[in-house]
Amino acid sequence: MNTARAARLIIATTLCAALAGCGGSRGRDASPGEIDRELRPEARTTTIWDLFSNSENPNSTVAVNKYLWNASLEVLDFLPVQTVDPFTGVIVTGYGTPPGGGRSYRATVKIADPALDARSLKLSLQGPGGAAVAPGTARAVEDAILTRARQLRIRDGRL
What is the mean pLDDT of residues 32-61? Predict the structure, then answer.
């Protein structure tokens, strides 16, 4: 009987010690590095359980194709940039005259998808005073942006 009682006492003591070890750093003095890691969520180490959580902040992710984005800025570099928002994929420019051209244009670019695809790119060109631009001109600018985006992707080596 005494052996069974001693075994139960050892098991109960072991379980209590294991449970006390789960308490974290809240009852003891933690080093400044440990406190810093607890206060800053970005410094937290990842675990296997992070795979199952949806902890991605939608306000800090960019759902824009970087090749289309950079190509749009390069092709339209003769236009002064007024607004740039990489989170929504919108670039708004002011009026400018292309090299060798006599007419000024204004452009609004929307990159709607992270894929390098023609459907991801929406371009709107306007002439002075909001005048309509020939569809062939807008199509030529779109083609130039798509061609440059493909060149950037090839140069990057990610095929």
Answer: 57
